[in-house]
Design a protein that fits this description.
The complex is a heterodimer of chains A (about 300) and B (about 300). Chain A is an all-alpha fold. Chain A is built from 15 helices and two strands. Chain A folds into two domains: about 70 residues, no CATH class; about 240 residues, MetI-like (MetI-like fold, Orthogonal Bundle), CATH 1.10.3720. In chain A, strands 1-2 form a two-stranded antiparallel sheet. The N terminus of chain A is likely disordered. Chain B has 14 helices and no strands. Classes of the chains: A mainly alpha (about 300), B mainly alpha (about 300). Chains A and B meet through α1, α2, α3, α5 and α6 of A and α1, α2, α5, α6 and α7 of B.
Amino acid sequence: MNADSDKPGSEMRLAQPSRARAAIRRERGLPYLLVAPAVAVLLALSIYPLVYLVKVAFQTGSGDAVRWTFANFERLASDGFFLTALWHTLVYAATALTFEFLLGLGLALLLDRSIRGRAVFRAILLIPMMLPSVVVGVVWRLMLNPTSGAINGTLQGAGMNTDRLTWTASTALALPSVIAVDVWQWTPFMFLVLLAGLQAIPQEPYEAALIDGSSAWQTFRHVTLPLLRPAILIALLLRTMDLFRVFDQIFILTQGGPGNATETVSLYVYRTAFRFSDFGYAAAMSFVLLAMTNVVSLIYIRLLQRQEPA
Amino acid sequence: MKRDVGETRRRRHTGTPRHPIKVGRAGYAVRYAGRYGVLGLAVVVTLAPVYWMITMSLKSEVDQFAVPPRWFGFSPTLAHYYDAFFARSFGGYLLTSVIAAGLSTGCAIVVGTLAAYGLTRLTMPAKLGRRLSVWILSTRMFPPIVTAVPLFLMVQGIGLLDSVASLVIVYTAFNLPFVVWMMRGFFQEVPREMEEAAMVDGDSRLGALWRVVLPLVTPGLAATAVFCLIISWNEFLMALVLTQTDAAMTLPVGIAGRVTQYEIKWGVMSAAGVVAMVPILAFAMSVQRYLVRGLSMGAVKG
């Protein structure tokens, strides 16, 4: 095939439509053949594990003595560690989401205009979210170390008393510290998606608002926000699902400690399964996490669909 | 959100002020300075921690723990890099990371691209095509920790625990929905007439895909592959769960294993961190154009 063959080809199509149609008829089975490997891989490595998870979570005993039970779930309901981990996960997700959204929206609005060096600013601001989360954990362990870290060191250099700023080492400050690290890493994601959303808004509504003499706030409230709604919802949806599963940075920064001050559901699942080898109990917890994720994503998807007809 | 690109661009270049703000020249200068002030602060907050890690990887131990901390002005040394990658086992972790990320990306790209083509182009009952696409996407939404327990037990069952092969398999499945959705978007942008014309000229369907369609979506395909590489390279939880010895550990797991020990060699850690970070940053910059699309699995076209 050479490059200029498509022109005569399209002429031929007009002349001989039956040939193309015959070719298409011949390939009835082809789409299924093309999709089959992907479906097989996903069935084996995404769907089967879920079935397996249910099995592990609801079954006790082995061999002939296997029976179905809710024992793991009953245990969950009265497990203080689990309830604390659940609470931490919710606090973590809600706080981080709020800050990431507000900061991301602010930065997106700042860069959604003709400003010199916009491309450079955008590129730099995106760096944290591209980093491996383990590296982010290492970076911030270096920064936050109460005695030898750069933050306290710099503050001391400026003459401040940092005795109380123990960051991840203290029960009170550990959770806010890991949340702050999440905000550092993931605000760029909000910023990026919201900026793309802003840039897709046409100019006309703004011109109309200008002619009507509406204030900057009115324009933002009644033009920008409604038109940005789909982008906002998608950004929030993807972020929420990621926040519910947070694991990596906390694992590096605190391992869930001190005590269980920063333990989230993911970390507790990990500890239960891979430290204590209690797979049934860990599976039951995973099940709860999965249900949470699904409920939240369904809510967002409903909200998104409500938007569409308008 | 589906707007004509040309139109959007045009607005960008006119640079019309979006808000009817009536301010004097002085007010304008203040706003201008304020805007750059905020952006400058954001840049410093973004870069300072990364810069600090880089300096830590280059400092001798005396400089590392100097009080007040030495942000500038220290005598750089490459000793930590040598220590990490030659004296310790980080060289091996690095190799494992490259193999796991490379092979899983290759597999996911081949399987995923074919599936995406089948889903967008071929005569399949329309509803089935949509349902399959949504189902494929939904498999990506499970929190990894949820599949970690069953996958660990499965991998253990087939005796692949603590092997690079298990990582390649798991990452392929991990990246597959992503590839399908990204490539679906790119295929939809190629007009059907292109390959129909080639087929009239006697090409088979797969021949048309190979010779006509793939060249047109090459940039998208490359971007998708780069995203897969980034995702696999950065992945931590599955690698942590599935590997136990130096032979199969990836770079993130190797780093994590050292961090959680009591005496932490900060120089070695930082050197390993820098090496884990640099290729990712280079890759990320190369796919900036597709970043929005990639990160939202095609939900937002930026």
